């Protein structure tokens, strides 16, 4: 791992963390429930990107599985929450 | 540790920085957009171009590292391309439903004639 790549990976992860921090404002404030669900969905995608960049940073293919699982469970979580906001229950 | 060509490192660096910048722009958009339906748009930046840049960087890097084509990171993008629109449409429907219930001004229902109760809208 060269210094260029490791510093760029650190910068990218810093950007994602900054994005998560900015979105947390919407998560806290969001006037309606759907705004909060939107912010949580965005945060889960950012977490997935952090894991992918960590995979590049440590040159390990093991991170892909974690990223795939994050994508899947993030989708399930936001879908369940959106369904709850829409219908008042998750499974009818 | 095998050495990686400098141009590969440059490509990976540019893609990673672009993805980070897109994510921050999307986050600022989520915070600054005035209405919920406008707020639905910015995450698409991170879901599409941001994730594509990271996956491309990962593919280029691991292809250079392993010496053979490694397309695994693209799976994440395929999954995101399938799931992100579903979440967005569900959230838009939820927002529309909630706003209609609250009596806010929203677009008219698609079905003309009888007033459609929100409970009866199909998912």
Summarize the structure in words.
The complex is a heterodimer of chains A (92) and B (123). With 92 residues, chain A is mostly helical. Chain A has helices at 3-29, 33-57, 63-87. In chain A, α1 runs antiparallel to α2 and α2 packs antiparallel against α3. Chain A is elongated and about 50 Å long. Chain B has 123 residues and is mostly helical. Chain B has one domain (6-103). Helices cover 69% and strands 0% of the residues of chain B. Chain B is built from four helices and no strands. In chain B, α1 runs antiparallel to α3 (43-66). Chain B is elongated and about 65 Å long. The model of chain B has no long low-confidence stretch (mean pLDDT 85). The chains are: A mainly alpha (92), B mainly alpha (123). Chains A and B meet through α1, α2 and α3 of A and α1, α3 and α4 of B.
Secondary structure: number of strands of chain A: 0
Which runs of chain A of at least 5 residues are low in confidence (pLDDT < 50)? Answer: none
The count of DSSP E runs of length 2 or more, i.e. the number of strands of chain B, is: 0
Distance between the termini of chain B: 53 Å
Oligomer: heterodimer
- Helical percentage of chain B: 55-70%
* Rg of Cα set of chain B: 21 Å
Q: Mind summarizing the main beta sheet of chain B? A: none
Protein topology:
The complex is a heterodimer of chains A (92) and B (123).
Chain A: H1 3-29, H2 33-57, H3 63-87
Helix pairs in contact in A: 1-2, 2-3
Chain B: H1 6-32, H2 36-39, H3 43-66, H4 73-102
Helix pairs in contact in B: 1-3, 3-4
Describe this protein with a few key phrases.
heterodimer, A: 92 residues, mainly alpha, 0% strand, elongated, B: 123 residues, 4 helices, 69% helix
In short:
The complex is a heterodimer of chains A (92) and B (123). Chain A has 92 residues and is an all-alpha fold.
């Amino acid at each position: 791992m060269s210094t260029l790549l490791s510093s760029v990976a650190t910068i990218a992860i810093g950007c994602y963390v900054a994005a998560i921090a900015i979105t947390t404002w919407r998560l806290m404030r969001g006037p309606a429930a759907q705004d909060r669900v939107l912010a949580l969905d965005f945060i889960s995608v950012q977490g997935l990107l952090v894991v992918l960049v960590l995979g590049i940073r440590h040159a390990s293919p093991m991170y892909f599985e974690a990223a795939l699982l994050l994508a899947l469970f993030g989708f399930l979580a936001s879908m369940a929450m959106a369904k709850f906001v829409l219908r008042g229950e998750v499974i009818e | 540790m095998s050495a990686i060509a400098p141009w590969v490192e440059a490509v990976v660096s540019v893609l990673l920085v672009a993805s980070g910048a897109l994510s921050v722009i999307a986050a600022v958009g989520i915070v600054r957009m005035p209405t919920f339906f406008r707020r639905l748009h910015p995450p698409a930046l991170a879901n599409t171009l941001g994730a594509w840049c990271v996956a491309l960087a990962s593919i280029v890097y691991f292809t250079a590292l392993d010496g053979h084509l490694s397309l695994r990171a693209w799976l994440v993008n395929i999954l995101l391309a399938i799931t992100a629109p579903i979440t967005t449409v569900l959230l838009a429907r939820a927002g529309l439903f909630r706003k209609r219930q609250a009596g806010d001004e929203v677009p008219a229902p698609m079905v003309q004639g009888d007033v459609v109760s929100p409970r009866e809208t199909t998912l």
